[in-house]
Amino acid sequence: MSSLALILPLLIPLATAGVGILAWRSRRLQRAIGLIGSVVLVIASVWLFVLVREEGIQSLQIANWQAPFGITLVGDLLSVALVLATAVMGVCVIVYSFGSVDRARESFFYYPLMHVLLMGINGAFLTGDLFNLYVWFEVMLISSFVLLALGGERAQLEGALKYVTLNLASSVIFLTGIGVVYGVAGTLNFADLALKLSAFEEQGIVTTLSMILFITFGVKAAIFPLFFWLPASYHTPPAAVSAIFAGMLTKVGVYALIRVFTLIFNQDISYTHTLILVVAGFTMVTGVLGAAAQHEFRRILSFHIISQIGYMIMGLGLMVSGNPAAVRLAIAGAFFYIIHNIVAKSNLFLISGVANKLRGSYELSRLGGLYASNPALSLLFLISAFALAGVPPLSGFFGKLMLVRAGLEAEAYVIVAVALGVGLLTLFSMTKIWAEAFWKPAPDESDDESAGESPGKAAVRQPGMALMMAPIIFLAVLAVALGVFFEPVYNFSIDMADQILDPRAYIEAVLPPEYIEQVRGGVK
Amino acid sequence: MNSIILQTATRYLLPLLLLFSLFLLWRGHNEPGGGFVGGLVAASAIALQAIAFGPARARQAVRIDLRALIAIGLITALVSGIPALMRGDSYMQAYWMDLGHESIGYIKVGTPLIFDIGVYLTVIGVALLMIITVAEE
């Protein structure tokens, strides 16, 4: 059954996209297909998740071409948890789109594109070799290019141009790196690389390779100093698109970093992971300082994505300590942080979309008075913002707690201090949005009391508002639940970390035993 | 463009190019060729039509809406893997059968050919949609 469970997260979005294109004449039909497809995707992802949780790592050799020669899909706890998160975000964003995306975009295949994007993300999480990771990156990027530019507004095209250029440049570096890896190791399969590179004589070359991949994945993950494309583009498309980008796309880069730097490049940890740790610190600080200088709702959030990426990379970088308990907690913390961030950050973007719909702007100077007119929305914003900043008992608190504990155990005091300071500055940024958009009186209220009040009230009853609010409420509840029911998630994260840190299980799940024997024998 | 030479040549070239694209598609599963190149050759044939007679005639020549062509191609490629799933094998596992008779020889038909047809249709759809849209602007 594993063969079906692993392929479904790719087939369902593809089929949905195909059928969705066929239904281009009817907007209603497109919406229905988009929704059904994403719900089915959630069901399939839950199935895969349960299967991997109960029976261990699953692998699938497409068309039965054996690894390391064929195309391999692998589901371990990390991948399937992220696939599940992708599917859940897919439903949220598609429901939100019903209320917020305009007719023109919808008729230009908005929903099929969204599903192609979901397919690309799932593919990147599930693939078992480097080349297919590149392919799925491209699938993801091409659909995101279109989603970003769809609508053709001036700001959008400017953002899309920067996004496309920098991401294509990183793809070229990635492809070059893949070529060199193949030249060195003669294979691109993750498991096979893990076997062969650790026994490779010239470790200097291996470290060089790891740095090439670090740069490519770093661009995708938006780490310091490669993040410029992100704040230049993420605030331009509709809020729903921003939300799925913010929630998932950079996480694919982080996932790739975690996968590669735990499974394959774990030889010269004192060099590679120290570098990662330093970069993590700079990423956190530059992101949060960048946010402090912004006065546009989504630009602030975009800079915060960068600083949050720093926390995730910090978990990976803490591997350098060599203290097994600390490393385990650090990887678990990084994972928990990814999940928490998908929920909280996407939700903030969705809320910014509602604010825009109510007030017609993302500029903080033109927003205001939302607390008076929409107390419920304000509460939801507070939950997500506090979760992001790490206020107990919300999800972000536990994410930071795990990482800080791991940092203390690893005796990496500098990075711990940075992480805590950045948390405080995050709270400052969130307070800024709160004070400007929600708390201060609406800018036009002083001119005409009734005119300032009524548009907001009327907008609450706007068609589609309920569809926009439903996913926001759901994600806010999720952010609370991740904190309140922390223990099962924590246990899962620890199991995940154990699995990630012991690559043998991964290798054995992918490669046939005779082959492993042969490679190991050849090495001796 | 209104050129008698081009228009006359296109009338003869169009069927030849389409035939060649089918030939490429057919041999693609184990010789150079395949759905992608085949699709490109077919699309270039229709693009020639667009240059000689105008984009409207090219759209007519395809008969089916290009967007539908893309969708059908994607679904066809996807479906080619389903037989393997139904037999409990790995997705996209190839099944082959020999069609024909001793006296006339055999031809091999299999699921990879269905996949190639899907690619062929998608490539035609995407390439033509781009070319014709630009030509119409």
Describe the structure.
In chain A, helix 1 (2-22) runs antiparallel to helix 5 (110-126) and helix 14 (324-359) packs across helix 21. Chain A has a domain at 268-484. In chain A, 79% of the residues lie in helices and 2% in strands. Chain A has 23 helices and two strands. Chain A has a two-stranded antiparallel ribbon with strand order 1-2. By secondary structure, chain A is mostly helical. With 137 residues, chain B is mostly helical. Chain B has one domain (4-136). Chain B has helices spanning 4-27, 35-53, 55-62, 66-79, 82-86, 111-136, and strands spanning 96-101, 105-110. In chain B, strands 1-2 form a two-stranded antiparallel ribbon. In chain B, a hairpin with a 3-residue loop joins strand 1 and strand 2 (105-110). In chain B, helix 2 (35-53) packs across helix 3 (55-62) and helix 3 (55-62) runs antiparallel to helix 6. The radius of gyration of chain B is 17 Å and the shape is flat. Chain A binds chain B through residues 3-4, 7, 11, 14-15, 17-22, 24, 60-64, and chain B through 67-68, 70-72, 74-75, 78, 81, 84-85, 88-94.
